[in-house]
């Protein structure tokens, strides 16, 4: 019997991370925030002055990430980078490095290593399509772009980071477009994925929906 995985994929700011960690908490499972690995790769490039167009250099950065996850803290080279990787600049750069096939390949096994008993909830763009294609439950989480921009704006302002709704919306649409249209592991629902639109749902309602779906399988 293989270790169970629930995959939650979807566009930027659809609430994947929040839902994944609440579902994992309820089940007593581990989490994989796969976007963090792309963000860490981007930050590592920024800090080392690596040109993100240079695929071999970025691949090298991805292979040599020296990171430690201690949720909610993430450390790189001993530094707490939990806030630094959430900056919009790093997110935008992350979606550029994520389009490079050698970078995705470099991060693949690292992601699969998170599959540890009793189970894993993995969130990202290609959890159900590429990383854990055998997952028994796959969710594709959607929300309207305006709703996502508002959520992101609120999240940032709660952290004391000032944000502009119009530019957030534009960034988010650009990032969605890049994630959807790339050749390698584009953002598309996995075969058999349950599509959940969270635009009109509370966090708790989405969590319950996922848990209901899981209890129908387990
Ligand atoms: O989810 P998050 O916004 O943290 O992800 C940052 C970027 O990393 C995304 O815009 C996407 O381009 C990339 N990503 C990816 N595959 C994943 C997770 C994230 O390509 N599984």
TrEMBL record:
Tree of life domain: Bacteria
Protein keywords: ATP-binding, Cytoplasm, Kinase, Nucleotide-binding, Transferase
Catalysed transformations (reactions): dCMP + ATP = dCDP + ADP; CMP + ATP = CDP + ADP
Subcellular locations according to the entry: Cytoplasm
EC code: 2.7.4.25
Major localization class: cytoplasm
Chain residues that bind ATP: 10-18
GO MF terms, alphabetically ordered: kinase activity
Domain Cytidylate kinase intervals: 6-213
Matches recorded under Pfam families: Cytidylate_kin
NCBIfam families: cmk
PANTHER family: CYTIDYLATE KINASE (PTHR21299:SF2), CYTIDYLATE KINASE/PANTOATE-BETA-ALANINE LIGASE (PTHR21299)
Protein family according to the UniProt entry: Belongs to the cytidylate kinase family. Type 1 subfamily.
Protein name according to UniProt: Cytidylate kinase
Species: Alcaligenes aquatilis
Gene name of this polypeptide: cmk
